[in-house]
Amino acid sequence: MLNLKWKPYQGTGVIVISPTRELSLQTYGVLSELMEFFPSFTHGLIMGGANRDTEAKKLAKGVCFVVSTPGRLLDHIQNTESFMFKNLMCLVIDEADRILDIGFELDIKKILRALPKKRQSMLFSATHSPKVDELVQHSLHADPLTIEVIRPEATVAGLEQGYVVCESDKRFLLLFTFLKKNRGKKIMVFFSSCASVRFHFELLNFIDMPVDCIHVW
Fold it and tell me: Which residues form the Helicase ATP-binding domain (predicted)?
């Protein structure tokens, strides 16, 4: 796009699809920092929960780079006439396995049918499954380049991995017990959403388990 001297009037050149609002916010945060070095490129974030009319007005002016959740992207493709994506050059599907796990398979297929076939496509997934393979066939060209992490290098040397299977109503108790037993050690806990991070941060501090939190809000 830099070599082509892409301009907003040409519409959207790159679309990045993320499974959730939180991941879209993180991706867009990184994109915004990068775009500081390329002021001629416009960029935008469209996602469920945000003001749809504001997004539509921005798309009408031309957004070179778009980061979006699947549902809201499909909404704009189908219902925002001023959204110009016919010149799309690159599609990125991030965390494809999660997109499928949370039920966006049909939306993604509709998006793929609507977008130009002549484009570069990239798909990223932490896991390999028949559903991901099917999505690869729908979204990528024949015989795509595949890059995999070699198994021996997938885990950092010296790092031990383990997991616990438990009922959902006992999950917090197990987490609290683990944190209590390892008090004084450096521990990082990941949750699936910003709201969940905030909830556990407040709850753990309330029951005298001092923790801090980092998230995009």
Answer: 1-146
Question: Could you count the other beta carbons within 10 Å of the beta carbon of residue 132?
Answer: 17
Tell whether 73 is covered by a domain.
Answer: yes
Q: Which CATH number goes with the domain that contains 111? A: 3.40.50.300
* Residue span of the structural domain in which 189 resides: 163-206
Residues 19 and 115 placed together within one structural domain of the fold:
yes
Q: If you write DSSP's letter for every residue of 123-167 in order, what string do you get? A: E--SS--HHHHHHHHHHS-SS-------HHHHS-TT---------
Considering the domain architecture, whether residues 36 and 120 belong to the same structural domain is answered as yes
Distance CA 90, CA 1 (A): 10
Cα-Cα end-to-end distance for the chain: 31
> What mean pLDDT do residues 95-108 have?
93
**Residue 177, pLDDT score:** 94
Residue 25 and residue 119 in one domain: yes
**133 shares its domain with 167:** no
Residues 115, 88 contacting (CB under 8 angstroms): yes
Contact 17, 91 (CB under 8 A): yes
Q: Which pLDDT does position 134 carry in this prediction?
A: 87
Q: Which two tokens stand for residue 193?
A: 């959403």
- Is pTM beyond 0.70? Reply is yes
| Tokens, residue 140 | 């990528």
